[in-house]
Amino acid sequence: MKGPTAQPLADTELPSAPLRLAVVQTEATPGAIADNCRRAAGLVANAAARGARVVVLPELHLCAYDLPTLAAAPADCEVATDESGAITDGRLEPLAEVAARTGSLVLTGAATRRPDGRLANSVVAVDPSGAVSAVYDKQHLWHSDEARLFTAGEAGAALEADGWRLGLSVCYDMSFPEHARAAALSGAHAYLCLGAFASGNEHRAAVYLAARALENTVYSVFANPVGGPATRPTRGGSVVYAPDGTLAAGAGTDKESTILADLDPSRMAEVRGFLHMLDEQRARLCDIP
Has residue 138 been placed in a domain? Predict the structure, then answer.
């Protein structure tokens, strides 16, 4: 498994072998990064023991998606990065250790403070060497709730794992078809979304994820938490959709769960044999004078 890179991946060849991926649907404690990391490390170890090579956790999982707590207690909720995005915060050591021990790529959400003072809603990657870095910043912030705290990211990103190219997104990003399309056109085979969709939005999330998979003939992956504050509960609904938009795996709602899915290049080849949206889109038709 190669370590993460945020550079666009232009080659569109399909992977040579399946990739087993785990989606962890769990609850985090607001402002308790060390405790959340310790518990997540155990969940990662269990998923790796079942063959998972990539493990995906929800948006802002390190501190929990609780914006009032994040605003009131930044030292408890943020992790600092250097100019390259690298993170050396000791509270994340359990995740670094389990990734290195199992050879897994772990993706989790975090509030990251950059050297220039910006706070970002980030995807943090813990690679198989144990290195920790912020690799993507959420580009579409959810209304003023998030815009008051975070600076929006300016660029998309993808990682590579066992020959699979994984486009990255955070929650509201997936509401915009262009975001997933950009990932697919850059060579992504799967579109991963770390979410924190609030209770009552399960149908909307499911429609988005199925559509993003089908219209781009990629796997779409969604990790959503359960629990949360009483003012903004979440119910899970984590899923994996196949490249034809059909459900490949689902965690259900209202309970913690880890689901595994085998992303299969032969399934992608079959679907792309008769669905050619990536090749046949006539971009000029989208420009209305």
Answer: yes
